[in-house]
Amino acid sequence: MVVLDSATSIIETTIHPSAVIWINGRQAVVATIGGEGQLSTCEINRGLEPEPSYLAEVVDAIGERERVLILGPSSVRLTLEREYVTAFRRRDRLVDVEPAGRLEVQTLVERLRVLAA
Predict the structure, then answer these.
(1) Which of 63, 47, 60, 58 is CA-nearest to residue 22?
(2) Domain that holds residue 31
(3) Quick one: which of 66, 65, 56 has its CA closest to 28?
(4) 8 part of a folded domain
(5) Is residue 35 domain-resident?
(6) Within a 10 A sphere around the Cβ of 5, how many other Cβ atoms?
(7) Domain count along the chain
(8) Quick check: 3 pLDDT over 60?
(9) Strand, coil or helix: what is 80?
(10) Distance between CA 38 and CA 32 in Å, rounded?
(11) For the chain, give me the number of helices (H) and strands (E)?
(12) pLDDT surpassing 50 at residue 11
């Protein structure tokens, strides 16, 4: 992303491909941003899937990102952390894994914008 300041010089703004995820045992909301600033969100419902299949689907939705924040109220949050690290072998990309009650998509997007900056 290129921004022009008041002196009309060009300032490069780096966006780090990032993801913020809220997850519980039944549903996950994944918000991602790419290096060009494209933002997307998706909801994944577990339905009758076994937990490993559900978590694999969430990890796939996250993709390989430079920064990842995982939020949620239960142990599935920690299990997702382990699955992500196993899939991409990059523990250093997990910024935080913290407990949180249900969050609105807009709140996830706001946290994602801060994380990606």
Answers:
(1) 58
(2) 16-116
(3) 56
(4) no
(5) yes
(6) 8
(7) 1
(8) no
(9) helix
(10) 8
(11) 3, 7
(12) no
Encoding tokens for residue 48?
């009758």
Q: Over the stretch 13-52, which tens digit does the pLDDT of each residue have?
A: 567 889 999 999 999 999 999 878 889 999 999 999 999 9
Match 């993801």 to its residue by tokens. Answer: 19
CATH number at residue 44: 3.30.420.60
Contacts 24+ apart (CB under 8 A), 77-84: 77/23, 77/24, 79/51, 79/55, 80/21, 80/23, 80/28, 80/55, 83/55, 83/56, 83/58, 83/59, 84/59
Which residue type does 5 have? D
d(CA 16, CA 104): 22
Does residue 3 lie within any of the structural domains? no
Residue 105, in any domain of the structure? yes
Residue in the block written with tokens 């142990």:
75
